[in-house]
């Protein structure tokens, strides 16, 4: 990774992170993916008493196709059980295919179970914190939420499952969505500082465009 790409990617990474202090809530809401560290972190939060139950939401996405023997949500739930979370405290929503879908289908699941949590802790990857919270605020405004992620630095995040290239591509795609999704009614407005958008443009010009949505700005 060149110095210019590194600096720009770090700017975007820092923008996505919100660093919200955690308070005990009614429900841990985990938006699943290919990163099992999110499942492990959510289980740790449960075991520390941050909420009385966990919802894992997610089907199979482009990145997780063939990675797990079941849906993302089911795989994450199995990890939580192995770490000591009681099965009766886990709810699984295995059908959602994007962030908005996670929220809509989880809301439906909780209604079916006659559960009405008022305060949520959203658990996500570090570079998806901001868009996750913005999406939740738009689609479920009657509830209160905070967002958190495994305490990993930019330099620590990449591993044998998620490369630096994959990470930067997703970060860039999420920033594009943060900029343009509010006009489509998908999320709340977020201020994007000039330096952050310049970093985005630098990374797109450098070829990190795998997760961009075509014609989204039109």
Topology:
Elements: H1 3-16, E1 27-31, H2 36-47, E2 54-57, H3 72-82, E3 90-93, H4 99-112, E4 119-123, H5 129-139, E5 144-148, H6 154-157, H7 164-184, H8 194-205
Parallel strand pairs: 1-2, 1-4, 2-3, 4-5
Helix pairs in contact: 1-7, 1-8, 2-3, 4-5, 7-8
Could you characterize what this model shows?
The chain starts with a helix and ends in a 13-residue tail after the last helix. The chain has 8 helices and 5 strands. The protein has 2 domains: 3-14 and 158-205, no CATH class; 20-148, HUPs (Rossmann fold, 3-Layer(aba) Sandwich). The protein has 218 residues and is of the alpha/beta class. The model has no long low-confidence stretch (mean pLDDT 94). Helix 2 packs across helix 3 and helix 7 (164-184) crosses helix 8. The chain has helices at 3-16, 36-47, 72-82, 99-112, 129-139, 154-157, 164-184, 194-205, and strands at residues 27-31, 54-57, 90-93, 119-123, 144-148. Helix 2 (36-47) links the parallel strand 1 and strand 2. The chain is globular. A 5-stranded parallel beta sheet has the order 3-2-1-4-5, sandwiched between helices.
């Amino acid at each position: 990774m060149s110095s210019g790409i590194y600096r720009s990617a770090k700017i975007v990474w820092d923008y996505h992170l919100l660093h919200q202090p955690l308070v005990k809530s009614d429900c841990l809401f985990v938006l699943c993916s290919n990163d099992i560290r999110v499942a492990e972190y959510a289980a740790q939060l449960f075991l520390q008493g941050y909420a009385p139950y966990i919802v894992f939401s997610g089907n199979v996405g482009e990145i997780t196709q063939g990675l797990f023997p079941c849906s993302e949500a089911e795989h994450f739930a199995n990890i939580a059980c192995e770490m000591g979370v009681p099965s009766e405290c886990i709810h699984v929503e295995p059908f959602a295919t994007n962030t908005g879908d996670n929220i809509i289908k989880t809301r439906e699941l909780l209604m079916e179970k006659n559960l009405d949590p008022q305060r949520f802790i959203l658990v996500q990857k570090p570079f998806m914190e901001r868009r996750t919270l913005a999406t939740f605020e738009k689609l479920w405004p009657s509830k209160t939420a905070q967002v958190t992620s495994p305490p990993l630095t930019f330099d620590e995040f990449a591993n044998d499952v998620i490369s630096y290239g994959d990470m930067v591509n997703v970060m860039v795609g999420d920033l594009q969505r943060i900029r343009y999704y509010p006009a489509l009614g998908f999320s709340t407005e977020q201020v994007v500082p000039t330096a952050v958008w310049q970093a985005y443009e630098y990374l797109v010009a450098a070829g990190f465009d795998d997760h961009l949505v075509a014609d989204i700005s039109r």
